[in-house]
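Researcher: Please translate sequence to structure tokens.
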Amino acid sequence: MSVAQVFDKLEQNFNADAAQGLDLVFQFDIEDDKTYHLVIKDGTCTKAEGPHDDPSVTLIMNSETLQGIVSGETDGMQAFMAGQLRAEGDMMLATKLGELFDMG
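Model: Translation complete:
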């Protein structure tokens, strides 16, 4: 699965109920691919390629780590502890990704 397909899948598996009242930007700097960001606003999710002017949190990883986390093969917290995933900004927001996207 390509990085672009991973973000398509995230957008398709978005849980609008969990995003009611939220106004957040998750930016993903994929070290061996492109940067993408997801704008979560009042129950909607908009995917865009490229960096955002003011992301709430930026997650930095390679495409293999991204695919592992999205597929459920890699635990995000373990990836973070192992140094495969870095976060800038409000790191606690990263924990909301599991609620906002149903990847099961």
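Researcher: Any highlights?
Model: The mean pLDDT is 93.
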